[in-house]
Amino acid sequence: MTQYDEIVNMWRLWQIETVSDIDERLHNFKVLFAYNSGKIENDAVTYHDTREIFENGRAINFTGDPRALFEQKNQKTCYEFLKHKIAAREPLTVSLVLETHGILTAGTYDERRFVERGERPGVFKKHDYVTGRNEVGSPPENVPDDISALLDEVQAYSGSEILKTAAYFHLRFEYIHPFADGNGRVGRTLMNYFLMSRDHPPLIIHDEDKARYYAALEAYDKAEDITPMYDFLRQQAERTWEKSLGRKAC
Hints:
Blueprint: H1 3-13, H2 19-25, H3 29-41, H4 47-56, H5 66-87, H6 94-105, H7 111-116, H8 143-156, H9 162-176, H10 183-197, H11 210-223, H12 227-249
């Protein structure tokens, strides 16, 4: 049995069924996830401010980049929103994708996107934004159908390769690049939503490992190879939960 299999077994033994269960098991995780997910694309995000926001609802004596503060407040709001849907095992839908994006990006769009180009949180992109070295991204007119097809595909999956399916979902979501901004934060959040909906532990993509993360994204962009991302996510899941697994073993 691999370490990842042991972590999945540990997660299932916890029998997480209610919002209270989620709060108990993700008490520290939610802060670390928000910090690392925000830090990947915004270097101004700090762990101290993130923890203050989650614990107190605000960052005392904050003097940094206002966007960083908005993003981390949005992370807390999104956690509070999604935990009820996770407990209810609600499926991934287009509506859920849009609501999640709307929460995570509220108040964070820059003037050019918001004023000049008419882009909005919670709405698919109106212009042809692309991402990565290979400049991938669906044309705006194709995004609704591409996202719907992806959601249908992963929701219909009934096999045992849940982490591999989560890797595929994340890669395709980022490849489609459905929004003018916030694609990474939304994609990482919804990947964890999918994992938890299938009774698998969520994971943290750590900021200090982002070079490997970007390389795994690029491998898919170039050749539709999901193996680098699958291997990377398995390692990140092990890193996320290895301390909890150690305590269980004791």
